[in-house]
Structure formats: structure tokens, C-alpha cells
């Protein structure tokens, strides 16, 4: 792998670290499997690109993208909480609706950001080569978000959110308004995913209506890889294991795609991802069965 | 402290499965009184507790805490006054979170501070002090996952958690029923200690006649969604388990057999 493609892998790994922590918030903290992210990632990219092309300040555009993602999360939560639609289905509905909305936001299926200013522009004059600068910038953003999120999950509000997912009845008996926590959690999660989309569009120079497909699986893959590496009760370690999981996942994929003798092409990415995530989910199951069998044999001997 | 006025609860109203769980309960509980609640399955004991806690909305009647009408308040809003311990030891705590995190959650009941850190050294010290009262060695395991504790330990911690914030009402729903007799006795000891110390108004549902008479100062028997008997003072102190069983027979004039094994055996 060349240095250039290695740096590119790190950059995407960090950006998808935001998706991973967003997915961690819904799947693990709130126990709310949310597929909205496939749509909100693209929404973030689409809003940022369209606003920048319209002459809006890129930082403001990125903020608007996050806000848009948060609204998408709120919509999913509302469908689930207000009308009792199954969480998976509610999020698929939002995701489907977002596909059209993203096309409307962009006006066409693909927007290019070539000469336009981006959030990276102010740092281009620092004299650091562009390919390093991009990685440092996204790493700084993602690490800052990770620190904030770990802190948040240890605040009274964040802990109440964790209790809502872990034991809603107990949460309620301790005065926690659980619906409010689910709304807040989904808004936060999808806001982070939209931020990832906005950063992706600006570092890679385009937004595309199909770029969000499979985001949920990639995020989940990162969460699972991180969980299997580091097992901790510390929120700081858990949040950063999601980000680390995302980096490792990207590196693994990149190695697989670069190994010419295997003959993979970029279009094989989704199959590789699905197989990797599938394996990560299946292996612990086998390990448990194997342990149980071994324990049974040990008991018989 | 608690006043129920003609409280009614009907499940599945209008359907074939309609169940009138509470049929006009009138009950007045003064400040600091410890009431034990007995009755056969389906008599409405748990429904009464859940209605007071706000988990179940009453279909008619009014509920007052300290002359304040709380009938329309949500369960979360009522937790300012009400703390509770469930029958299932797994229900009252979060198994995935640590002991100190669980206690921090309970500490936040009634006055959630939002974006302040939920734990600090001062609180950890307080939690250690409280846990050391249990004599279970848990004060040294603040960062252990709750899920690692036994049912009795979890129930004991739940009790401590219910007393971390000054509340006025404690609702105990058969909180020792899932424990072995020795652990149950320990948990009841802690219950009596906390109740006496915090001067709480308590409603304790129990299946054990012995427990119902040995603890608290007043015993009510529920039957078919109503308070069938209300014992207190001199009269109650002279009652034994046998007398309670006789009372049961009286409120079932149709000669229906007492078929609740738990009730008979739970001496």
C-alpha cells in the first residue's frame, strides 16, 4: 500500500469513526437499532455540498448538515414513540424518504466541490502538505467529538440515557423521562453521522445520492471490531474503541482491496463488509458453544 | 400522606377481556405509617401500588399526596415523592452498569442536574458509606458491574438506592419474594432500618402472612379490587397467621376454597 492510499484510508477511517460512535449510541446505548444513518450520512453530505455551492460559509454549512441529520433522527424517534412503529421499520421509512429528499437538496444525483472553499480551506496555507493536513484535521475533529461524547455519557443526562436503553422500567422509577432521552439520543446520533457525511463530501470533493448505502453496516462493523478488541466499562475507552474499530476496519478493507492476487475490486466492498460483520457476529457464538462443550466434557471427566 | 379516593382501574375496558382491577379503593395513609398489603392473586395489590407510582392511570377517582392532587402526574414526575423496589431483583437496577453508576442514577432522582458529571469523589464516599451498612463487602466493589451481584445483593442495593434521595413514600412490591429465606430476612432488616431512619410512609405488598404481621403498623387485605379488611393497633397485635386465614374465609362467603398455596405456605 502506498503512503498516499494509507493516508486516505486513515482519513476515511476517522470520518467513519463518527458514524461508529453514532451507531454505538443507538444500537448499544439506547438499544434502538436505527438504520436512518444510511440516509442521514448522505443528507449531511448533500446539505453541506449544496450550501457551499450556494455560497454559504463551509463551517455554517457543516453545522446545518448536522442539524439536518438530527431532524432525521427525531423523525425516526417520533414514528417509533408516537405511533408505535417498530424501530427498525420506522428508521427504514425515514431512510427511504431521505433518498428523495437528498436528491431534491442536491438538485441532481451528484455534486462536485472542486474549487469551492471547504472547512479545510483555512488550513491550506499552513504549509503542511495537503494529504497530511486532511488526515490531521479529521483526526482532530473526531478525537474532539469522542472526548465530548465520553464526557457527555458520564454526565447525569448521559447516564440517564444509558439507563433508558439498559432498563427503561428502572429508569422511569428513578424519575427519568425515557421518551425524551430516546429523542435526544437519536438526534445526537444522526447529527454525528451527518457531520461525517459533511466532512466526507468536503475532503473528497463530492456528494452523491448513493454514497450512504451500507453506512449502517460499516458503522456496526467498527463498533463490533472495537468491542472485540477492548472490553471496558469506561465510557472513554468504549467511545475510542469505536473510532479505533473504524480505523482497523478501513485498513483491513484497504489491504484486501490492494492485494492484487485476491482479485477484489472496489465494487466488492459491500460483500466483503457483510462477510466481515457476519463473521464478527458469528464467531462469538461459536466460541460460546465451544466453551460450553469443553466445560461439559471437563465435568464428565 | 397518601389518600386514595374511590380509585378505579379497568384494563381492556369494553372488551371481552375487561378486568376491573381496582373497584373504588378508599384508603388514607398518614405520614410515617408502614402498611403491609396482602390478598390473593389478582386481588389488585400490585395494581394499587402501580397506580400510586403512576405506571398505571386510574380510570376514575383521585389520588393525593399531602393534599396535593397527583392523579394527572406522570410516573417520572411522581418520583419526587415516590421511591420503589420491585419484586424482580433484575428490574430495579441496570445490570450493564456499575454499582456506583446505578447509585448515581438513583441519587439523581427528583433533581436531575443535566450536564454535570454524575459521579464525583464526594458521591463515591457517600455510596461507600451507605454500602458498608449492608455488610456485604460491596463498598470495595463500586466499579463492579451490577449484573455480577446475586439477587439478594442487588435487592439490598436497590433498597439503599431508594433511600438516597429524600422521598416520602416507599413502595415495596413483594421485594423479598424472589430471595431465599435467609437473604429475605436480611433484606427485611435493612428495609426496617431505612424506613425507621428516613421516617418513610410505606406500602409493602407481601405474600407472607407472617411478614405482613411482623412488619409495619397496619395491615390491609385486598379482595376483588377493594380493601376488604383494615387492621391496625391493638386488634392487629393480637392477630396471628391463623386469624388472618379465618378472615380470608370470611370474605369469601361463597365457600370458595383458598387455593393460593403461596399464601398458605408463606408463613
TrEMBL record, chain A:
Entry's localization field: Cell inner membrane
Family (UniProt): Belongs to the binding-protein-dependent transport system permease family. AraH/RbsC subfamily.
Taxonomic superkingdom: Bacteria
Organism this protein belongs to: Marinobacterium zhoushanense
Keywords, comma-separated and alphabetical: Cell membrane, Membrane, Transmembrane, Transmembrane helix
Membrane topology of this protein: Multi-pass membrane protein
Listed transmembrane segments: 6-27, 59-78, 85-101, 131-153, 182-201, 213-230, 237-257, 269-286
A Pfam entry, by short name: BPD_transp_2
Listed name of the protein: ABC transporter permease
From TrEMBL, chain B:
Cell location: Cell membrane
Keywords, in A-Z order: ATP-binding, Cell membrane, Membrane, Nucleotide-binding, Transport
Membrane topology, as annotated: Peripheral membrane protein
Domain ABC transporter: 2-249
GO molecular function: ATP binding
Domain of life: Bacteria
Family assignment from sequence similarity: Belongs to the ABC transporter superfamily.
Protein name: ABC transporter ATP-binding protein
Organism: Marinobacterium zhoushanense
Lineage: Bacteria, Pseudomonadati, Pseudomonadota, Gammaproteobacteria, Oceanospirillales
Amino acid at each position: 500500500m502506498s503512503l498516499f492510499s494509507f493516508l486516505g484510508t486513515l482519513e476515511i477511517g476517522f470520518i467513519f469513526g463518527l458514524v461508529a460512535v453514532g451507531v454505538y449510541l443507538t444500537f448499544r446505548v439506547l438499544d434502538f437499532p436505527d438504520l436512518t444513518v444510511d440516509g442521514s450520512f448522505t443528507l449531511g453530505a448533500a446539505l453541506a455540498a449544496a450550501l457551499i455551492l450556494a455560497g454559504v460559509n463551509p463551517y455554517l454549512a457543516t453545522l446545518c448538515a448536522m442539524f439536518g441529520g438530527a431532524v432525521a433522527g427525531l423523525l425516526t424517534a417520533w414514528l417509533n414513540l408516537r405511533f408505535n412503529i417498530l424501530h427498525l421499520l420506522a428508521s427504514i421509512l425515514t431512510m427511504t424518504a431521505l433518498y428523495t429528499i437528498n436528491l431534491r437538496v442536491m438538485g441532481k444525483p451528484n455534486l462536485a466541490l472542486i474549487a469551492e472553499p471547504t472547512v479545510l480551506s483555512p488550513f491550506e496555507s499552513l504549509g503542511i502538505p495537503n494529504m497530511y493536513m486532511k488526515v490531521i484535521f479529521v483526526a482532530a475533529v473526531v478525537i474532539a467529538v469522542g472526548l465530548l461524547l465520553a464526557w457527555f455519557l458520564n454526565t447525569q443526562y448521559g447516564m440517564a440515557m444509558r439507563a433508558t436503553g439498559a432498563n427503561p422500567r428502572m429508569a422511569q422509577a428513578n424519575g427519568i423521562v425515557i421518551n425524551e432521552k430516546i429523542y435526544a439520543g437519536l438526534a445526537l446520533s444522526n447529527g454525528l453521522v451527518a457531520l461525517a457525511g459533511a466532512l466526507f463530501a468536503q475532503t473528497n470533493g463530492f456528494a452523491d445520492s448513493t454514497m450512504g448505502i451500507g453506512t449502517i453496516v460499516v458503522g456496526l462493523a467498527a463498533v463490533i471490531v472495537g468491542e472485540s478488541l477492548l472490553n471496558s466499562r469506561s465510557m472513554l475507552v468504549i467511545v475510542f474503541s469505536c473510532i479505533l474499530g473504524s480505523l482497523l476496519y478501513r485498513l483491513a478493507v484497504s489491504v484486501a482491496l490492494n492485494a492484487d492476487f485476491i482479485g477484489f475490486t472496489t465494487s466488492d466492498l459491500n460483500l466483503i463488509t457483510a462477510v466481515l460483520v457476519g463473521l464478527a457476529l458469528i464467531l462469538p457464538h461459536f466460541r460460546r458453544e465451544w466453551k460450553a462443550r469443553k466445560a461439559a466434557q471437563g465435568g464428565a471427566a | 400522606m397518601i389518600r386514595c379516593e374511590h380509585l378505579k382501574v379497568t384494563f381492556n375496558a369494553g372488551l371481552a377481556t375487561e378486568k376491573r382491577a381496582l373497584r373504588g379503593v378508599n384508603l388514607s395513609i398518614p405520614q410515617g405509617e408502614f402498611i403491609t398489603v396482602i390478598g390473593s392473586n389478582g386481588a389488585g395489590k400490585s395494581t394499587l401500588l402501580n397506580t400510586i407510582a403512576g405506571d398505571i392511570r386510574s380510570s376514575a377517582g383521585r389520588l393525593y399526596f399531602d393534599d396535593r392532587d397527583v392523579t394527572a402526574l406522570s410516573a417520572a414526575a411522581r418520583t419526587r415523592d415516590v421511591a420503589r423496589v420491585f419484586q424482580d431483583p433484575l428490574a430495579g437496577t441496570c445490570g450493564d452498569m456499575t454499582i456506583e453508576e446505578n447509585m448515581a442514577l438513583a441519587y439523581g432522582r427528583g433533581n436531575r442536574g443535566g450536564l454535570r458529571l454524575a459521579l464525583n469523589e464526594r458521591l463515591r464516599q457517600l455510596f461507600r458509606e451507605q454500602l458498608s451498612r449492608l455488610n456485604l463487602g460491596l463498598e470495595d466493589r463500586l466499579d463492579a458491574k451490577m449484573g455480577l451481584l446475586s439477587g439478594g445483593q442487588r435487592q439490598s442495593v436497590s433498597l439503599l438506592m431508594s433511600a438516597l434521595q429524600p422521598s416520602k413514600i416507599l413502595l415495596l412490591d413483594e421485594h423479598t419474594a424472589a430471595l431465599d429465606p435467609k437473604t429475605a430476612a436480611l433484606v427485611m432488616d435493612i428495609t426496617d432500618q431505612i424506613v425507621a431512619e428516613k421516617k418513610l410512609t410505606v406500602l409493602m405488598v407481601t405474600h407472607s402472612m407472617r411478614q405482613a404481621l411482623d412488619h409495619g403498623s397496619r395491615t390491609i387485605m385486598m379482595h376483588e379490587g377493594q380493601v376488604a379488611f383494615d387492621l391496625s393497633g391493638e386488634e392487629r397485635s393480637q392477630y396471628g397467621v391463623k386469624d388472618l386465614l379465618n378472615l380470608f374465609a370470611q370474605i369469601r362467603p361463597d365457600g370458595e376454597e383458598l387455593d393460593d398455596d403461596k399464601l398458605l405456605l408463606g408463613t
